[in-house]
Write the structure tokens for this entry.
Amino acid sequence: MAKKRTAPRKQPSQARSQATVDAIVTAAERILEERGLDTLTTARVAEVAGVSVGTLYQYFPSKEAILAVLGERNQTETLQIVERVLAASRSAPLADAIRVVVRALVSYFRTDRGTLQNTLTAARPSAMDAGAFVRMHMQALASVLASHLQARKEELRVDDCETAAFLLISAADGVAQALAHTDVDEAKAERVIAEGSDVIVRYLLP
């Protein structure tokens, strides 16, 4: 079976066009969050976005193309969150900075991970499969964090900052997924996040 096109049909060149693209992608995200992947169609996305189906197809050849863009935006958003948290905690004790980063990552993964996973699954017809996209996403996050750890390497007990960053990201993701699939109240979730952060701090710091 032929693969569906997932690259945008054309790039918006004016503010008005960009606003249309943003409305389409935001509508797709809203449908995913409220109704799930099975209800996502180009007609439904166009309706929620307030544009005609013809207008939608000017920019996106298929719903998979919309989802691919949504996946990329989710990745960018996660990176921006990590960068903001790292910048804000640059002068803080490293243990505190690590705890803040872990909490921010777990919170983000808990609230947006489901949407991102649906996005990636739906975009499987693209040249990059869902698994590869997830790996790229995690590696991008780890790269940002590794740079921060490298700048404070003298405070660490580990030598390989890239591996340490990848383990930190993976641990935060694992905690988030465990909480998502376990019936715990917020007080318990907070304890899990706090203790998970302490484990990571003990691994990284002497």
